Amino acid sequence: MRGVIMHGPGDVRVEEREHPVIVEPTDAIIKLAASCICGSDLWPYRGADEVDGAPMGHEYVGVVTEIGDAVTTVKPGDFVVGSFMASDNTCEICRAGYQSRCVHVVPMGRVGTQAEYARIPLADGTLVATPGQPDEDLIPSLLAASDVLGTGWFAAVAAEAGPGRTVAVVGDGAVGLLGILAAKQLGAERIIAMSRHADRQELARRFGATDIVDERGDAGVERVKELTDGLGAHSVIEAVGTQESMMQAIRSTRHGGHVGFVGVSHDVELPGGELFGSMVHLHGGPAPVRRFLPELIQLIWDRKIDPGVVFDLTLPLAEAAEGYRAMDERRATKVLLTV
Ligand SMILES: [Zn+2]
């Protein structure tokens, strides 16, 4: 089968890989219906993370082709969605809703789902079957649930977005944009999108942003304060992962407010004194997408949300290298790979 391998920064190739087989009785094999390139795949692509011949991809939807002897909740033929972290969904951490830190967690990036087939470990805990075979036009949205929607949703929940709250969102990539959608669904009264790109501002408004701030850093913080009677937002979503974005998020939050941070942290160091004075709640990390999957799948199935519109470029798997280039050069927000 064909799959994406990253040989080094900027060097992505679609190559012949071993067809996956059942290794553990808890495994399932799926035939991918679609996969995609994640903003976090750009870290190694740009040389910020080490990479040397790694299979790529951790987002996936597809049809089960084979299951191990111990698998009971999905069967061959089921259309399934899973999270970017495989989890047993039974340990204490999972039951508390933190499946991305399951005691048996397997990061799906290690499997590499930018491929025709993938082995899904811990299939019972990881995969959620859709109510039936989806219409073709639902596939991008279901794929979004696998990571970017689930991550944006967790960020909004971690930031305690809800009725009566003003939510600010730092980062206008796919996760930030879907954090806006999540905040809106959770009932937020006002949503401030921090973005300086016209096309992303438009999508932000479509998803529910009421205000746009195009300043960054301290100027962006000032603007959020002006919009909130000098207090800052109740809830702030951080969806970038840099020092600047994290501090922008913390400083945009009012005393007693909540920051939900989901941008993969790169060299972020928090100043203790400022944090002490800020009196904000910080909660974040790799999103436990599995917690939200049943609800998100139903919202998509019922056509109540349309997160798939974040995909603004669709390419066949064979052209994955062009997809990476397009995202790296910001010609695309999110690239869907058809398999
Ligand atoms: Zn677990």
TrEMBL record:
Its cofactor is Zn(2+). It comes from the Bacteria. InterPro entries: ADH-like_C, ADH-like_N, ADH_Zn_CS, ER, GroES-like_sf, NAD(P)-bd_dom_sf. SMART domains: PKS_ER (SM00829). CDD domains: FDH_like_ADH3. Keywords: Metal-binding, Oxidoreductase, Zinc. One of its GO terms (molecular function) is oxidoreductase activity. Residues 8-337 form the Enoyl reductase (ER) domain. PROSITE patterns: ADH_ZINC. Belongs to the zinc-containing alcohol dehydrogenase family. PANTHER family: DEHYDROGENASE, ZINC-CONTAINING, PUTATIVE (AFU_ORTHOLOGUE AFUA_2G02810)-RELATED, ZINC-TYPE ALCOHOL DEHYDROGENASE-LIKE. This is IMP dehydrogenase. The lineage of its organism: Bacteria, Bacillati, Actinomycetota, Actinomycetes, Micrococcales.
